[in-house]
Amino acid sequence: MTLVGSRTVLQAISPATARRIVVRDERPGDDWHPEYPFADELDPLRALAAETAADPEFTMYIVRRRSDGPAIGGFGFFGPPDDKGTVEFGYGVVPSARGAGLASEAVQLGLQHAATRGALIALADTELENIPSQRVLEKNGLIEIKRDQSHVYYRRDLVAR
């Protein structure tokens, strides 16, 4: 599964690719940025690597910059929608790719994909001090629903387009 935007491409990560990413077994065509993956992506990547039949839609994706192709980050669902149609997601791009709207477009692509696959509600959270990430979520129509001492939590109702 590949999701294509004007500036980014999201490529679904198979369990086999997840295994290679975790051990950094980069092969021709992978073009992983030296800072990819992030430390907080390793546990979800390990879980995906252990799957034998991963969900092909609500999975983890490599975020690539469309202009030149490198893997500059990740976008991932924490599983398929639950019985209420709620899906949770997370994302990130390497520091050198920040500030160019790439994370915003990756989130937009992911949310459009989720809506067309039956998700009704999207949830995400970010660290309290991560203002740029909060802006990405807000640009994509997510609304703050609560905050605690360390995180801000967001929600958006999805509509298939």
Helical content stands at 25-40%
Distance between the termini: 18 Å
Give start-end ranges of low-pLDDT stretches.
Answer: none
Any idea what the radius of gyration is? Answer: 15 Å
> Based on the structure, what is the oligomeric state of the protein chains?
single chain
Q: What sequence of helices (H) and strands (E) makes up the elements?
A: EEHHEEEHEHEE
Mass-distribution shape: globular
Name of the CATH homologous superfamily: Gcn5-related N-acetyltransferase (GNAT)
Task: Give the overall average pLDDT.
Answer: 94
CATH architecture: 3-Layer(aba) Sandwich
The number of distinct β-strands equals 8
Across the major sheet, the strand order is: 1-2-3-4-5-6-8-7
Largest sheet: 8 strands, mixed
Question: How much of the polypeptide forms β-strand, as a percent range?
Answer: 25-35%
The top level CATH class name = Alpha Beta
CATH topology: Aminopeptidase
State the secondary-structure class. Answer: alpha+beta
Question: Please, how many helices?
Answer: 4
Count of distinct structural domains: 1
Description:
The protein is an alpha+beta fold. It has a single domain (2-157), classed as Aminopeptidase. The protein contains 4 helices and 8 strands, in the order ββααβββαβαββ. It has an 8-stranded mixed beta sheet. β7 and β8 (151-157) form a beta hairpin. It is globular. 38% of the residues are buried.
